[in-house]
């Protein structure tokens, strides 16, 4: 093809838009829309008449996509430690348990609230006691949420309201307590009283909060008198320590004392039984001697006298020797003699040791019994007379 020949394969009557015998020009928009709508099932020739149908299909597609997005956006999950508070157009609707749930977007809104975790809130400040002293007190309050609806809607700011309640209760308790009690022995009373007052305020305002614990951290006097109070506290702690040591000592000594008491009691009972039995034996012995005494009163009396004197002189440290009836009595220190003859036992000489005799009754009022009488036992006692 030469450069000066017409294009389109040399066909002057044919244009790229399928029109023959017409001059070239811009495409017909109606024809283009007709072809597009014919692909979607609209248009049967002639001018374009499917614009309305096309608009309906497009709107349906857009609405379908929006509906799918709206449905998918409504799914949410509540954790195990949380509870979901559902609001419908800003008003409370229900409380949702943990798990997967769905709500209509732009209609409902869910607020998760943690009901398992233990929360902590400190409280401190300088407070005036009942005896007009200033003390610095620090406490730590532990709590958790038990009612999500009341926690969110009963008060404007539950955490701030709780802080104000703690401060009010603590100041009230400290103001009715002396400084010594706050610092020393009354700490537990202050802690329990503060907890009771906080719980009363929480229950009155329905804050949906439960106290777990109230910890009394510290209570200190002003720096000007801190040393003196520290000494007082140390003295009271020493007092309690001494009391505990004394109680421990008492618990250790008490069993020993009870054992000694029991032993003494048993010894007394044994001694009592011994004395009773001994007395009964003496009575039985005298009862057995009664018939002998009735048969021979003089002989029995003499024998009892001699046996008694033998018992008495066996326990004495002196020896009385009658020197052949001359009337002169010689006293010998028996303890000295026994110490000089420690290796051998001292024996009584039948010729020198004489036991005193009981004078026998006669017509002349008294007389010594005859040693040759058969009523006297010469093998036991010898008068020493020639």
Estimated structural class: alpha+beta
- Would you count the extended β strands for me? 10
What form results from the Cα inertia axes? elongated
Largest sheet: 3 strands, antiparallel
Low-confidence stretches: 1-5, 43-50, 346-386
Mean pLDDT reading: 76
Kindly summarize this structure in a few lines.
With 386 residues, the chain is of the alpha+beta class.
Describe this structure in words.
It is built from 9 helices and 10 strands. Strand 2 and strand 3 form a beta hairpin. With 386 residues, it is α+β, with helices and mostly antiparallel strands. Strands 3-2-5 form a 3-stranded antiparallel β-sheet, with no helix packed on it. Strands 6-7-8 form a 3-stranded antiparallel β-sheet.
Q: Could you list some keywords that capture this structure?
A:
386 residues; alpha+beta; three-stranded antiparallel sheet; 10 strands; elongated; disordered N terminus; disordered C terminus
Write the layout of secondary structure elements.
Blueprint: H1 29-39, H2 51-73, E1 75-78, E2 82-88, E3 91-96, E4 99-102, E5 108-114, E6 119-128, E7 134-145, H3 148-153, H4 158-175, H5 179-183, H6 187-205, E8 209-220, H7 226-295, H8 297-314, E9 318-322, E10 329-333, H9 334-340
Antiparallel strand pairs: 1-4, 2-3, 2-5, 6-7, 7-8, 9-10
Helix pairs in contact: 4-6, 7-8
């Amino acid at each position: 093809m030469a450069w000066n020949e017409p294009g389109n394969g040399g066909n002057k009557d044919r244009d790229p838009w399928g029109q023959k015998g017409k001059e070239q020009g811009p495409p017909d928009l109606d024809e283009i829309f007709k072809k597009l709508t014919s692909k979607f099932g609209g248009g049967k020739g002639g001018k374009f008449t499917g614009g309305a149908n096309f608009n309906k299909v497009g709107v349906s597609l857009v609405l379908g996509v929006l509906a799918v997005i709206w449905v998918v956006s409504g799914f949410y999950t509540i954790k195990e430690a949380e509870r979901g508070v559902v609001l419908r157009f800003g008003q409370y609707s229900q409380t949702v348990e943990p798990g997967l749930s769905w709500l209509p977007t732009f209609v409902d809104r869910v607020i998760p609230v943690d009901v398992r975790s233990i929360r902590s809130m400190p409280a401190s400040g300088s407070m005036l006691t009942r005896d007009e002293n200033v003390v610095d007190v620090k406490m730590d309050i532990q709590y958790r949420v038990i009612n999500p609806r009341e926690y969110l809607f009963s008060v404007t700011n539950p955490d701030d309201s709780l802080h104000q309640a703690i401060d009010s209760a603590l100041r009230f308790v400290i103001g009715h307590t002396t400084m010594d009690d706050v610092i020393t022995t009354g700490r537990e009373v202050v802690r329990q009283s503060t907890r009771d007052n906080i719980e009363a305020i929480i229950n009155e305002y329905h804050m949906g909060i439960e106290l777990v614990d109230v910890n009394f951290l510290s209570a200190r006097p002003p720096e000007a008198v801190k040393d003196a109070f520290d000494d007082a506290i140390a003295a009271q702690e020493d007092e309690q320590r001494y009391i505990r040591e004394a109680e421990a000592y008492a618990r250790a000594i008490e069993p020993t004392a009870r054992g000694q008491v029991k032993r003494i009691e048993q010894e007394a009972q044994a001694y009592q039984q011994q004395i009773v039995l001994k007395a009964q034996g003496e009575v039985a012995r005298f009862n057995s001697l009664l018939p002998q005494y009735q048969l021979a009163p003089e002989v029995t009396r003499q024998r009892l006298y001699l046996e008694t004197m033998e018992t008495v002189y066996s326990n004495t440290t002196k020896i009385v020797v009658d020197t052949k009836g001359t009337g002169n009595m010689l006293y010998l220190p028996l303890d000295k003699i026994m110490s000089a003859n420690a290796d051998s036992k001292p024996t009584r000489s039948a010729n020198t040791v004489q036991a005193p005799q009981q004078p026998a009754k006669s017509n002349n009022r008294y007389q010594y019994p005859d040693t040759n009488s058969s009523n006297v036992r010469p093998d036991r006692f010898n008068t020493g007379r020639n």
